[in-house]
Amino acid sequence: MSTLRSDRTELDIAVVGGSIAGMATAIRFSKMGYRVAVFDKKKMASQPHKQLCTHFIQPHAVPLLNELGLAHLRGTDCSVSAKAVFVTPGGLIEGPGGYLPDVPDSFALNLERRVLDPAMREAAQECGVHYHDATSVERIEEDEQGWHLHTTSEAGEQSIHARLVVAADGRQSRLAKLLGSEATLYPNERACLFGYFSGIETPQGKPSTFIMHERDLACTYSLVEGRTLLVLFADKARIESWRGTDERMRHFLEYFDALPQGPSTTAAVPLSKLMGYGDYPSQVRQPVVGSVPFVGDAALSLDPMSGVGCGFALSSADLLARSFADRALDKAGIAQGLAEYQQRFCDTILPHVEGICADSLVERNEAFRLKMFQAISADPDLSRKYLAITGRMLLPSEFHADLMRALTRQALSARKAGATSDVAASRPNPPSTALADREVGSF
Length: 443
Ligand SMILES: Cc1cc2nc3c(=O)[nH]c(=O)nc-3n(C[C@H](O)[C@H](O)[C@H](O)COP(=O)(O)OP(=O)(O)OC[C@H]3O[C@@H](n4cnc5c(N)ncnc54)[C@H](O)[C@@H]3O)c2cc1C
What we know:
CATH superfamily of the largest domain: FAD/NAD(P)-binding domain
CATH topology of the largest domain: FAD/NAD(P)-binding domain
Number of domains: 3
Helix content: 25-40%
Strand content: 25-35%
Number of strands: 22
Shape: globular
Mean pLDDT: 91
Bound molecules: flavin-adenine dinucleotide
Number of helices: 14
């Protein structure tokens, strides 16, 4: 029989959800001197890390590990620092160094969740965060001084009081449901399959390679200990037609082997079963609902093909912590902190949503895409900006203006030469930014 205990110990911050966004939030607030506890419904002894994640951390978020006391995870024994190489219909896109040659250390990180998740919990505990696993938050109630959280665990039911509650409870956010916050959904027309392998030759410099093939994106990531992660985002019909565990693995490896500039998989040895999903629509919620801030997937959970979820989990936690720096946790302080967080979130994270959601659709204007990738691939400055936008180091608008100029130049010189390009023929005026947003997406 369950028991009901009321813990009158006053918490400053109660974080619901103890994965990337929750732990990053807890560490940051704890370092600012607040009394913080995290509640996660999972039992960590049996589920120590998230499995359904291909753990490519975009370069904008890598420096945030330092703020969490996790700089050591950037070492070669824990992760692989990687630049990105894109094989597009219009040619290769790659930079000479990292993502931005003028920004030192601008690399993405292949940092497996089996390493990251326990390290975050350890760092949180070291800086005084109280961590309660196997504890589900069932209800929350607001009063004059903050919130009562009603939890259930093996020990029974409990009521805890905190001045601020942070929703870091993921894509299916229970807090969003309790607070009546609906997500806006965007379709994702690709399914995903991924697996871990040995026996795949690592390319020089261990870049992460993204091959655009037909309507699909095939990704190759080098991992520590000579392992390789292969990830395929493909037309749902293609993946659905690969039936049966062994047949699916065979088709998957053959697909990579046949790719132009893909890795050879003839000596590949599977180290895991294939994992993935059939349907994973993007979803976006308000970053603040009433007086509850939402971070990570609870706020927005986008097509995993964009590889932004872990990075946005880290950066939303960072934005929230910075919005509360030097604030009192009284009514006025909380209201100001939440308003600042909402603004920062809208300015830095939301501008990426439109392009990512456009990428999730498979029907594209192929002639325009070809011209666009030819223009990007041929121009080192545009290539650099394209890489920066995929690494979320630049806002899409900063890239689109330059792309429009390059396409206009391309169309004008084709006209001058007396030729009629597809772009020039179909668009006598420079293409609109709205069209570009739809066609460019983020890849
Ligand atoms: C196939 C796939 C591949 C991906 N690959 C990448 C990638 O390469 N790069 C990248 O950046 N992102 C990737 N992502 C996305 C990334 O995994 C997520 O964005 C990230 O894990 C979100 O972290 P989070 O902390 O916000 O949420 P979650 O990891 O979902 O954590 C939410 C936590 O809240 C807990 N919880 C929920 N409800 C309650 C409750 N009522 N009480 C207590 N606890 C609760 C859950 O147990 C869970 O631990 C991928 C996703 C998928 C599906």
